[in-house]
Amino acid sequence: MSSGYGNRRGRRGGGGRFGDGEDVWDRCAGPSGGGYQSNPGWESREGQARGGGRGARGGGARGKHPPHLKGREIGLWYAKWGGIKRSEAERKSVRTYVTSYFDGDDPPEGPQKMGKVAEMEPDKKQKQEQEEEKEVKMKAKVEPRERDLEYLFQDLVRKPALDVELKSDFQAKAENPKYLEMLVSERMSPVHYAQRLVSLVQASRVVVISGETGCGKTTQVTQFILDDYIQRGAGSLCRVVCTQPRRISAISVAERVAAERAESVGEGRSCGYQIRLQSRLPRKQGSVLYCTTGIILQWLRSDPCLSSISHLVLDEVHERSLQSDVLLAVVRDLLHSREDLKVVLMSATLNAEKFSKYFDNCPMIHIPGYTYPVEEYLLEDVVEMLRFRPQHQDRRPRFPRSFLQNQWTRPEKEAQEAEYRQSWPCFARSLRDRFSDDTIEALERLDEDDKINLDLIVALIRHIVMNEDDGAILVFLPGWDNISGLNDLLMHAPDPCRVTMPLSDQVFKRPPAGVRKIVIATNIAETSITVDDVVYVIDGGKIKETHFDTQNNISTMAAEWVSLANAKQRKGRAGRVSPGKCYHLYNGLRASLLDNYQLPEIQRTPLEELCLQIKILKLGPIASFLRKTLDPPSEKAIELAITHLKDLNALDRSEELTPLGFHLARLPVEPHIGKMILFGALLACLDPVLTIAASLSFKDPFCIPLGKEKLADHRRKILSKNSKSDHLTIVNAFWGWEDAKRRGYKCEREFCWDNFLSANTLQMLHNMKGQFAEHLWAAGFVRSKDLKDSSANINSGDSQGLSTTAEICVCHHRPVKVYTKADGKVCIHPKSVNAEETQFHYTWLIYHLKMRTSSIFLYDCTEVSPFSLLFFGGDISIQKDQEQETIAVDEWIVFQSPARIAHLVKNLKRELDVLLEEKIRQPRPVDWDDRGSSDCAVISAIIDLITTQESPSEAPWQERSWKAGQHWD
DNA sequence: GAGCACTGC
């Protein structure tokens, strides 16, 4: 048995001495996902609606529907508000309260509400407002994009007048009572840390700062650097940029820093932020900018040396996101050409050394974290304490563990399991001194089942509720099925565990006295949201992870054991407000075998998009750049990505960008989606194609609330308008939303509610569409930035017309034969409108994402006609096969066809290819006004062919065969 | 019959 974990057990965690003056930095400023600030009161504000419009409680909801409602509206009223009323009534009578949070539940408040903004003195404020107004008027004339570029390219030239101004401002601020108040209450930063840190940064080109979440490094380090420059009268030479992994943390940290500096965020101040489609930029010199990592990677395209930045601070590098790993590699190279650039890496303590080594053993400095101590318990402690005995399962014959487990276990995990099984007897013996035989037997039984034992969690929750002090309980589970399972169990548990499952904004509120809040969450609660009154954490021990199986060329998602870093992060969630307790539901042996960290994202993900980025950033040959990363991806994964890009015609044989590749690399989407966007523009069905592209690259706007699955399916089916297409369902939903929005806020809310749509997601999709349109316009593919421009939407049509035109573009997805479940190859995901469909017009579907979870699922698919496949599916060839003419797409989708038609199709397709290639080589919009032009003629002919073909029986072809061996999936 | 989490001038 490996050693070590036994010592961790029960150890006082955190090592913190909160409140111990000198060493305290700032315990509140969680650098990661500072999260949403909770409302101090438990009750919602009156009439305040949340997200999809489930609010309007209080005034209206008093037992009877408002008198003006009629018929169906009355039913709706009871459906919507009845549930809320019921839960309010129940809340008064029960002791325990469960609420849950997954992604997809919109947070109750926007991040903009974070942070306090200190007030300024009146005259200064007035002056500043005038200045701001002047500036806003000026800026209003400049397009946002140009403004950002102007911001990016400004040089860091010393401005003595600015230096003096900044310094005197700083000194004046030091006398401002409001600022001093903030300084005392918020920063409390010990001077010696600031000095040590600043001199270390001055002396070295790269510094690693390690410290746990909550030690305040994110908010403080940037300010130390800036204030040092200002005090030395060199403020104009300092421009700190700090990257964050999440949008929400970039905003909340910037807001917080501004508040600490007694300023507001952005526009000419010392602190601002920039995330996709949203920015409040600080003044050009003498400032700190918080941005997402992706933003810096985009900046590099225009300014490969980051010449306007004096200090680059990379936060949360230990999370090992794809983008942060790439940026690290870029920056390491950049240091050769930018001798004056200072780089600061901020990491959790566990592997700070790794980053130091990567940067030539650069100096490290540790910032102690100050959270409350958290006691940790392992599975054996929990089982012993609760005297828990697993229910007898129906005793199936015991298969070898690897068989019972996920049938696609990865080889590394296989080895770990073998070690676990081998060490078990020894571990069990070592437990005998401290634990009862019953406990050891229970542990063995728990081990037989790979699933998380929810009965155990219920028992543990009961124990905490009945025996422990007040404080919220946070339960980490890997996914939806566990969460809803646990919720069901709690719902049906006898008092005092009777629960209700209310709206998710109550996740963030403190419950009234005598009520216990229980939050069940996925790993979203590790970093992205913060429930700040948590005292007890139950760590289910599993986490869902995606991987990329290069052998079978498929993405996978499965629950895996957590890493030590996850476990530590989960534990930390218990010590934010008081000393806490954390129960890990895995035994000591398992704990000793946990990985330190999850596999870095770069090793778990397909690399196509990254390869294009490497090319457009001119970082050298793809493989040699990737080998320079901290933990390079496998050669096989690199090879696979390059092959795909060549197939897509984005890279040529010598791995250089083709004209198409160049455009794809510039669009902020995956290459497949990018191609769809370009073709959508050229074929004049821009608006719907952009909706689809935005949705595929961000997220689908549909939500499925717990218990409402059937109804949600039904509503989606209606929105699909029998198109047999998930893509067009989203287009219909989006149009419906736009229409509802035009009719007012109430209509919008109602439309979203009725159709299970997230208004926040739709708004984001709307913004992204605008961004895509701007790209297309800048590249010359469309005449106008307006994506509704009629010349770009000649083939968009509505309903009928749309279903075929949008299909054209969707064909840049992968095609697949319609299988039935019995075929066992792939399944249409149950969320798809095609899941239950039995009557297809055609035998082919195209899909965007295929992933292996419990089976291999196609997540979004659209039925396509053979003509669509022939014109947009790939290379076509005509052959004589057994005395019959056939026409084939990429040599594997083969149709039987009269020779005349086959040749007609082939010629037309060739013309289309020439036209598209020419347009991409020299972007310009198709001139639809000149109907006689050859462009128009070719495209119109194809569209006519596709749209007029009403039923398969009228088609001049017959499907001949499908060559299974050549299926490239 | 099923939904870890992020991100992009």
TrEMBL record:
SUPFAM superfamilies: P-loop containing nucleoside triphosphate hydrolases. Residues 459-618 form the Helicase C-terminal domain. It catalyses: ATP + H2O = ADP + phosphate + H(+). It is an enzyme of class 3 (hydrolase). Residues 1-72, 100-141, 950-969 are annotated as: Disordered. One of its GO terms (cellular component) is nucleus. Residues 49-61 have a biased composition (Gly residues). Residues 198-368 form the Helicase ATP-binding domain. SMART domains: DEXDc (SM00487), HA2 (SM00847), HELICc (SM00490). PROSITE patterns: DEAH_ATP_HELICASE (PS00690), HELICASE_ATP_BIND_1 (PS51192), HELICASE_CTER (PS51194). CDD domains: SF2_C_RHA. GO terms for molecular function: ATP binding; DNA helicase activity; G-quadruplex DNA binding; G-quadruplex RNA binding; hydrolase activity; RNA helicase activity. The keyword Nucleotide-binding applies. Its EC number is 3.6.4.13. InterPro entries: DEAD-box_helicase_OB_fold, DEAD/DEAH_box_helicase_dom, DNA/RNA_helicase_DEAH_CS, HA2_WH, Helicase-assoc_dom, Helicase_ATP-bd, Helicase_C-like, P-loop_NTPase. It comes from the Eukaryota. Keywords: ATP-binding, Helicase, Hydrolase, Nucleotide-binding, RNA-binding. Residues 116-141, 960-969 have a biased composition (Basic and acidic residues). This is RNA helicase. It comes from Electrophorus electricus.
